[in-house]
Design brief:
The chain is an alpha/beta fold. It has one domain: 3-Layer(aba) Sandwich (Rossmann fold). Helices cover about 45% and strands about 15% of the residues. It has a six-stranded mixed β-sheet with strand order 3-2-1-4-5-6, sandwiched between helices. Helix 3 (about 85-100) runs parallel beside helix 7.
Length: about 270
Amino acid sequence: MDIFYLIILAMFFFMGYYNLNKDDVDDDDDTAPKRKGRKQRRSKSPKRNQHSADLEIDKAPTTDLEIKVICLDRSGSMSSFGNEIKSGVDSYLKEINQNHGNIKWSTITFDDIIETPVNNQRLTNKSELKSTWIEPRGCTALRDGILASIECAESMINKNNDTLRPAKTVGIEIVIFTDGMENASEKISQPELTSMIKKYKLKGWIFTFLAANQDAVATGSRFGFDAGRSMTSSAGAGHQNFAWKRAASKKKFTKKCRSKATSKRDRHYVQ
């Protein structure tokens, strides 16, 4: 009899164990599709590439000829930069020469005198900025310098059109560097210049504005320059070289790259 009861108890124990495991298996089967569904949903959602988002690229059309006018401040306050501007501009020239095989370039320098040390020259791997062209002196006729750069670019376009085999598609960019505010221009007012810049932007011209000791985005907006092509660049060879090399690319200036172009002291200018 004792054996009979033991057999009955064993049978009840086995049936309970089986049902318990069955419930566990059913629970696992219910949750498995959910987990799978979550996994599938995660795989379907696009992965965000923050680096790509930070480095938006202007998809400019391919051109037969690129015209570059570099407009440089040589007022007295530029003495604090030493040879850093030459180093930065030279790195810019090297970069753009690698990016395009047919570039004509000019250089406009300004204090309270406007000069053109380079005028419509073909860019080569030997092209460079001469230190004597940017020796600091005088006041800051920024508006007059930009006006002279626009007129220079117009002249370069006309010279191309007058050749026997003019380039059919031409890209125009004016790159400006200054370390201070306007205080000496006489040829054009601020509203007139801003209106002129907006007109040329509608034609596809690019204006790149690099500035020290100020918020370049805020200053540039008063001229009509795009925020994506305006950047504060601090003194120091590293900051200048980075800013000029960045200006040579087709990428818009982001907050991340603006931070790299400025010292800790100037970081409050970064937008």
